Amino acid sequence: MKDKNRTTPPKQGALKVKDDSAANNTKKPPSKQETSLSYFLARSMNSMEANSLYGDTCLHTTVSDLKRCYGLRFERAREKIKNRMGVLVNFTRYQLFTEDSTRAHIVVRILKERRGALREEIA
């Protein structure tokens, strides 16, 4: 009598793993750190701008992570902006220290390399 709950192991060579990334030429999208750092290399921004540019709703956390993980420093300036109701709301504008721009370029390159984007740029 056969046990219905028991499964037989697959024959050797019968198990095939589908590699979607090679077949579809798909690559990982840029991480939030890579995207935000690319913007910081070109401009300063506050959380409202980051949200509209690339959907970052927690810019303060992203900036903190960039400082903690990569030692990047940011200038902070308080500013008031009118919201939809006309009320002034406090925001913090972040700007990458000019002295850290070389390091930031290196970090962006490392992050691109990790997700395989540099291979495509070189080829």
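(ticket continues) Second input and output from the same batch:
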Amino acid sequence: MQTGDLPRNSRISGALTRGGGHASIGLLRKRYCKRGHTIRDVARLAGVSPGTVSKALNGTDRVGADTRERVRAVAKQLNWQPNQLARGLVLRRTHLIGLVVPSITNDFCAQVYEGAQSYASERGYSLLLSVTEDDPQREASVVKRFTEAVHVDGIIAIPAPIEEGKSPFRDLHAAHWPYVLVSRRFPGLPSDYVICDNLEGGRLATEHLISLGHRRIAYVFDSRQSACTNVIERRQGYQRALAAAGIDCDPALCVAVDLHNHPQNQVQLRNMIDARRPTAIFAHNDRTAVIVLGWLRSVGLGVPSDMALVGFANLNLATIVTPTLTTVEYGLRETGRLAAKALIDRVEGKTAEPQQIVLTPRLIVRESSGGRLCQS
């Protein structure tokens, strides 16, 4: 009998089925020492078809648990792994995911990456990172390269500030190319996304300051992101909290600053404070809050003694600065993990409807607002 003609009911197959396949595998190793093992070798020893081997090792639920474990045991003993390149050609997948972020130095992006990378690895995918600096043209170039040259299976992105009609993700949606947006979204585009409940977060931050007796509360945000949904929705939450407390919303207290032009944003903040005399500032994110904190110090204003301050996101720097930053948290690593899950499920055909995940925020009270500290 030729080695390649081992029948399913052979002594080798029977021994494996009964759990005593070590000697049989050793015999097969000797016989096959002159060539690498193939999926057919695994199939013969496990007593199944090559197709069942593929399904068992790909984690499909169409294979019984006993069969799956038997196939994995054989593959491990033979030190055999599926050829990912060949598998990708068959499935028309690369098992690559493009991650598009504004910055690699921003802790926000780093935490989202960590969450996405960890989950993607568990599902057998790798991440390719690309940075846009929130530049719409660079973003369009990155998306084109990922889809036309690299052929990623899908894209996770913190989209650049741009009109919905000009976004490259509108084209991806029309082409049915899998993608998931993080933090920001386009209201008219039925995308998969993972975001925070920004209305609720804005309300929590503002109500906290109101509870401390503040009635002149400013909302400060990055002028380059003024059209982003997260900035708009947090401002709406801020405005609703003021209205609920019977406080008129002064438009002059909503200030857009250019975070990349420190002299200019200092002038904008100085003019707002001199003209409107706020006693508290809600910054649309922690990075903005820290820049505001530095400027307040430079002009001799103390936090929280002269000005209470609240941020948003709970970045690592929120616990490093002095005073520590009161902020709104919603789980950045979990955001990345959920985005990767939503994308891979979409790629693998496990979902049909848009996956629109909205995370619940919570307030973390620290020193900068002058409130009673959270135990965290």
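Agent notes: Confidence is low (pLDDT under 50) at residues 1-23, 28-34. The CA atoms of residues 132 and 139 lie 5 Å apart. Closing as not reproducible unless the customer responds.
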